[in-house]
Amino acid sequence: MPSPFHLGWFLQGSSVQAWGEPWTGAIGRDWMMPELFCDMARSLERACFDYVLIEDSSYVGESFGGSTEVYLKHGIAVPRQDPAITATLMAAATTRIGIVPTFATFTHPPYLLARMIASLDQVSAGRIGWNMVTGSSDVAARNYGLDRLPEHDLRYDMADEYMQVVNGLWDSWEPGAIRADEESGALVDPTKVHAVDFEGRWFRTHGPLNSGPCPQGRPVIAQAGGSPRGRQFAAQYADTIVASIKGTAGMKAYRDDVRARAAAAGRNPDHVKVLYLVNPCLGETREEAEARLAARKARAERQVPQLLAFFGKITNIDFTKYDLDAPVDTLDLRTNGHQQSLDDFRRVAGKKPLREALLAYRGSSGSVELVGTPDAVAGQMAEAMEAVGGDGFLISMSDVSRRTVAEVADGLVPALQRRGLARRAYAHAQFRDNLLEF
Ligand SMILES: Cc1cc2nc3c(=O)[nH]c(=O)nc-3n(C[C@H](O)[C@H](O)[C@H](O)COP(=O)(O)O)c2cc1C
To answer: Which residues does the UniProt record annotate as the domain Luciferase-like (predicted)?
Structure first.
């Protein structure tokens, strides 16, 4: 019997991600309302997903020709609501699935973050994760009163210290601190709640955390940075990693590297679940799935400026400066933003012209191409996992809608379950326990 793998959903943004998609209701009129996301969380819980991760950034892009125009006109990561709000509503709409909002270390002081995440963990009965990001844009930095973000590797050094602070705050309540002893009238055992008094290079805090403890002790930590420094960070702290690498050889090398780093840091590598982004294209027949893939690719070809604007937003590169026919290996592309994404783009691009390379990289597929009937795609996922070694997939659809979510939750997942590749029921009440189930 094959062993099951983990499933998550990488939700790109809130509210507007389904803009322009059919089968999603009146998203243009109702974009402020959370029903689409709550329905999605309920559907994914029906399919026993480990988690839904709410991706985020807190600025309006202006990397494309130095203007906000293309971002605003096409709803590229704007408008988007604060992920803490979406996460709260999703938690209220569900009972078992893990929910992982994204917050950057430069936007929230550690105490604020630790308290907010602990509160969410409490109201969700132990189902919260934090997607820990260090930020990638100077435009965002300016929204928070900074001139620019610190340099790439320094951001991770600062994040190391940030983790010490928030872990100290989450640990400031020992297990058993809540007594709720009606006889003596004592709610909390004061001997089990401690100050933190952390004084570091960048952060200071007193503590203890006034929200009380997280039901999970510490929340689940997710992280996505894939540069060598990012992997080092993830290997030390992450329970789950969002990985975006093209091809099973690269996927395997990435996972092997993270696992080796985790072991070297004294952790059990099986406690770090690497999930790969994929964008499956499903149909009732192979022909229908291929026709939908062709339509998806044709749409990407019409949206080259938007795709470049998005890639420019996460790398801070103004792609309007480059000729679309210029071979990528002749361009001087550098970033203080998503380094690993840019490296992977260069690797996939080789000598291809920019336009072609972009379509190959961002046009349709994800880490591996998944196209066909639910059963065929389940087989393709099994093959990829066999080659890579584990640990699962994060679905991230370019054409998300109520229809495509249902195709995954009620088509693909049952096909995976029939092959023993996905869980049929949650074994545990809390998020981390489910992540560690296999
Ligand atoms: C697949 C993927 C998803 C990411 N999601 C977010 C996000 O939601 N918000 C954010 O600010 N950064 C996000 N990041 C950025 C990373 O957390 C990290 O800050 C950035 O990639 C720079 O690190 P690196 O050079 O180590 O990859 C993402 C990165 C990747 C590769």
So the answer is: 38-390
Answer whether 63 contacts ligand 1 (Cβ < 6 A).
no
Residue nearest ligand 1's atom 9 by CA: 56
Q: Which residues, in sequence order, are bridge partners of residue 51?
A: 8, 98
Nearest CA residue ID for atom 18, ligand 1: 225
Nearest to 72 by CA among 426, 232, 309, 373: 309
The pTM (predicted TM-score) of the whole model is 0.95
- How far is ligand 1, taken at its centre, from the CA of residue 133, in Å? 6
- Sign of the dihedral defined by the CA atoms of residues 231, 310, 146, 133, in that order: negative
By DSSP bridging, strand 178-181 and strand 186-188 are antiparallel
Q: pLDDT tens across 99-132, in order? A: 999 999 999 999 999 999 999 999 999 999 999 9
Ligand 1 close to Cβ of residue 275 (< 6 A):
no
Q: Is 396 in the pocket of ligand 1 (CB under 6 A)?
A: no
pLDDT tens digit sequence for 196-245? 999 999 999 999 999 999 999 999 999 997 889 999 999 999 999 999 99
- The answer to whether domain 6-285+368-436 has CATH 3.40.1780.10 is no
Domain ranges of the chain: 6-285+368-436, 286-363
Residue among 338, 340, 343 to mutate when testing ligand 1 (max atoms within 8 A of CB): 338
Cis peptide before 391 (omega within 30 of 0): yes
For residue 345, report the distance from its CA to the centre of ligand 1, in Å.
14
pLDDT tens digits for range 350-365:
999 999 999 988 765 7
φ and ψ at residue 193, rounded to 5 degrees: -125, 125
